[in-house]
Design a protein that fits this description.
By secondary structure, the protein is mainly alpha-helical. Helices cover 73% and strands 0% of the residues. It is a multi-pass membrane protein. It holds the Pfam family MotA_ExbB.
Length: 287
């Protein structure tokens, strides 16, 4: 989780629990029986609705969405431009090492298609299929979280009814009323807090992260296809910058000094252009 999110979570939690403290004792809002009814009932409903392996996958996905950091769009563009330059200088097969080293699964998949000499349309079809089923899996995980969130208020009402029944049965006994009213009221409270504090925010965060990852995958796919077609890195950069917001479109995503150092390019390196210029006239340097 980013530091800003963590700070915001702590501040909002303090405000939330502070509201309970202003008008009473915080211990009044804790009831083990209510928590067992709401949490236990929702857990049973989830186990009856979904396979245990599906719930484990959702847990791993939610945990990874808060613990792992995604690369920014600008960083992905930077990586792709470096790969395009390396491909033009050393050949596509030189990207095999990058395929083995990268930690981005989708980029590894695309580089594997390049090294295996797939056609551009085949690469697009493979990566589009990868994106499609990635989106389906994430939507399935989000659906599980939202379904569990729908269970919680219902079991909050169950707990409330479970508290009202003995209260009505002992309407003449003040001691019974004092024992059962907290169960009835705190069950509704837990039935509202659990989904809105945990499951719905988890699902919303998962959707936001999925959309961000799909954008990165789209950038990678366009970059991989451009590398396969040997598109000039300068043109590639101009194309990929369209994916970024204006504030992220830096003037020099890939510093020239870094390119020269990595690929041993000399400033006076020239390449003849036989299309518009005479053969004996040097043309501009092309990476």
């Amino acid at each position: 989780m980013k530091r800003q999110n963590l700070i915001g979570l702590l501040l909002c939690s303090l405000l939330f629990f502070g509201g309970f403290l202003i008008k009473g004792n915080l211990s009044l809002y804790f009831n083990i029986a209510s928590l067992m009814i709401v949490a236990g009932g929702s857990a049973i409903a989830a186990l009856l609705s979904f396979q245990l392996e599906r719930l484990r996958i959702v847990l791993r996905v939610v945990r990874a969405s808060y613990r792992s950091r995604l690369k920014s769009e600008a960083e992905i563009v930077d990586i792709l431009i470096n790969l395009a330059i390396k491909s033009r200088m050393e050949g596509i097969l030189s990207l095999q090492q990058d395929e083995n080293e990268t930690s981005i699964h989708f980029l590894r998949r695309g580089l594997g298609c390049l090294v295996d000499n797939y056609e551009p349309q085949q690469i697009r079809d493979i990566l589009n299929t990868e994106m499609y089923f990635f989106k389906l899996r994430r939507e399935d995980s989000e659906r599980v979280l939202r379904t569990i969130a729908d269970f919680c208020p219902a079991f909050g009402i169950v707990g409330s009814v479970a508290g009202l029944i003995p209260m009505l049965a002992g309407i003449d006994d003040t001691g019974i009323i004092l024992k059962t009213v907290p169960l009835a009221l705190t069950s509704i409270l837990y039935g509202l807090i659990l989904p809105n504090f945990f499951f719905i925010p988890f699902a919303a965060n998962l959707r936001e992260r999925t959309n961000q990852e799909l954008l990165l995958q789209k950038i990678i796919m366009e970059g991989i296809i451009a590398i396969e077609s040997e598109l000039n890195p300068t043109v590639l950069r101009t194309k990929l910058l369209s994916f970024l917001t204006p504030s992220d479109r830096k003037a020099d995503l890939v510093p020239l000094s870094r390119i020269q150092e990595r690929f041993h390019i000399r400033l006076d390196a020239t390449e003849p252009d036989d299309r518009d210029e005479p053969q004996d006239r040097p043309g501009p340097a092309v990476f």
